[in-house]
């Protein structure tokens, strides 16, 4: 049997998660479809970065912030499909939407919120034998917890801002920092590169990772064999961790049927307005995917977009509903939850 949802949200990043929260607050039956195993979107790319610029939120590590937005996004128990990519969106004769995902399943929805952040972003993987085997062990594509890198020898591959920032952050934490880059000069901000030079990081330009030598039990990288592409000289280096920061590949998200007129800004982003409306009735958008004059491409902008998109969905589905949701402090949806919180505080 077809199970219909009021709204299906493509993407479980900050915009999608906050849309799910707000959609629950507005009493709509909601589904999130997320390509990755973990919800959290791009914030998962910077787990060890401190986030300062979200109103009312004191400085918080990306990893913790991601956990918070996931918890908030699931407040009203939306249906969540993880590891699932939306491949196409079709409109039926009743102007409802059918989404097809990469597992061949169909998802039925009266409205859609695009919160897909500009496509699927994947770190550029290292094209070296056994790289896949060590991934998630001691080969990483984003910065790991600083604690796990304390007093360790860390080799960082890459010469852009992300790689160099990562190396700078490790200067006073790791035992040794080695930076290898395929070109003869780093592309990163000069001031950051200077910090590395002063901080005694080992720089190896014109150098790439040639191969890995694993530990005896084969569970981790023990040595990295490097090749200097200018001189041809190879060298072996004992390491505890390897962090690869070679940038990201962006994959365009999904196709739409010819009856859907979604106007794009370029290959990835959609044109719309500050009410979260796109150029197609019934399809709304929030977060990085949506462009309009005055757009703020930050977390706070994604949250604002989410509220606007959800209010627009509500009015699209129920034209007589209030234009905006009731403030949370007076909202009936929280009565029972507030009692629980107050009780647990009294009993603490
Ligand atoms: C390194 C870095 C540091 C940043 N630092 C800050 C900061 O300090 N402060 C700040 O305010 N902002 C910061 N930002 C920006 C902020 O992270 C983004 O604005 C925010 O993540 C946008 O949220 P979003 O939900 O729109 O998109 P995303 O976070 O990109 O989430 C989109 C989600 O949609 C999923 N998806 C895409 N296509 C599909 C599909 N077809 N099917 C299913 N799922 C799909 C993706 O997998 C992803 O999980 C930073 C960004 C980066 C890259």
The number of helical segments is: 8
Q: Spell the H/E element sequence.
A: EHEEEHEEEEEHEHEHEHEEEEEEEEEEHH
Bound molecules: flavin-adenine dinucleotide
At the first level of CATH, the class of the largest domain is Alpha Beta
What is the third-level CATH name, the topology of the largest domain? FAD/NAD(P)-binding domain
| Alpha-beta classification | alpha/beta
- Helix coverage percent of residues? 10-25%
Shape: elongated
Fourth CATH level, the homologous superfamily of the largest domain: FAD/NAD(P)-binding domain
Q: Got a strand count?
A: 22
Query: How far apart are the first and last residues' alpha carbons, in Å?
Result: 47 Å
Give the radius of gyration.
Answer: 23 Å
Mean pLDDT metric: 95
As for the number of domains, it is: 2
CATH architecture of the largest domain: 3-Layer(bba) Sandwich
Report the sheet with the most strands, covering strand number, pairing sense and barrel closure.
8 strands, mixed
* Strand coverage percent: 25-35%
Give unreliable regions as ranges.
none
Notes on the protein architecture:
With 348 residues, the chain is α/β, with parallel strands linked by helices. It folds into two domains: 4-121 and 249-347, FAD/NAD(P)-binding domain; 126-246, FAD/NAD(P)-binding domain. It is 24% helix and 27% strand. A hairpin with an 8-residue loop joins strand 3 (50-51) and strand 4. Helix 1 (14-25) runs parallel beside helix 2 (62-73), helix 1 (14-25) packs across helix 7 and helix 5 runs parallel beside helix 6. The longest helix is centred in the last third of the chain and has 19 residues, at 299-317. The N and C termini lie far apart (47 Å). It binds flavin-adenine dinucleotide (FAD). Flavin-adenine dinucleotide binds at residues 10-16, 33-36, 41-43, 45-46, 51, 53, 85-86, 115-117, 119-120, 253-254, 287-289, 297-299, 302.
């Amino acid at each position: 049997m077809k199970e219909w949802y009021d709204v299906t949200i493509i993407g479980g990043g900050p915009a999608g998660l906050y849309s799910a929260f707000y959609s629950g607050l507005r009493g709509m039956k909601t589904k999130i479809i997320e390509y990755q195993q973990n919800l959290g979107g791009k914030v998962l790319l910077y787990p060890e970065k401190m986030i300062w610029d979200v109103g009312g939120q004191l400085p918080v590590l990306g990893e913790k912030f991601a956990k918070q937005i996931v918890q908030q996004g699931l407040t009203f128990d939306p249906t969540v499909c993880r590891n699932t990519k939306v491949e196409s969106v079709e409109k039926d004769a009743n102007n409802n939407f059918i989404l097809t995902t990469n597992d061949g399943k169909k998802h039925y929805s009266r409205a859609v919120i695009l919160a897909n952040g500009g496509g699927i972003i994947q770190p550029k993987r290292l094209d070296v034998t056994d790289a896949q085997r060590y991934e998630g062990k001691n080969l990483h594509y984003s910065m790991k917890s600083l604690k796990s890198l304390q007093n360790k020898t860390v080799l960082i591959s890459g010469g852009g801002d992300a790689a160099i920032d990562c190396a700078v952050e490790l200067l006073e934490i790791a035992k040794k920092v080695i930076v290898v880059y395929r070109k003869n000069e780093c592309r990163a901000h000069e001031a950051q590169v200077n910090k590395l030079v002063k901080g005694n990081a080992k720089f190896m330009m014109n150098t790439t990772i040639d191969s890995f030598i694993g530990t005896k039990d084969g569970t981790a990288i023990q040595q990295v064999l490097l090749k200097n592409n200018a001189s041809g000289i190879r060298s072996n280096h004992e390491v505890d961790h390897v962090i690869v920061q070679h940038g990201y590949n962006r994959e365009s998200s999904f196709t739409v049927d010819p009856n859907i007129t979604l106007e794009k800004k370029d290959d990835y982003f959609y044109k719309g307005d500050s009410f979260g409306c796109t150029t197609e009735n019934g399809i709304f958008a929030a977060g990085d995917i949506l462009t309009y004059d005055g757009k703020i491409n930050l977390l706070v902008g994604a949250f604002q977009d989410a509220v606007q998109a959800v209010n627009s969905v509500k009015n699209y589905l129920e034209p007589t509903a209030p234009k905006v949701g009731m403030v949370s402090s007076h909202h009936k949806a929280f009565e029972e939850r507030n009692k629980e919180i107050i009780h647990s505080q009294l009993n603490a």
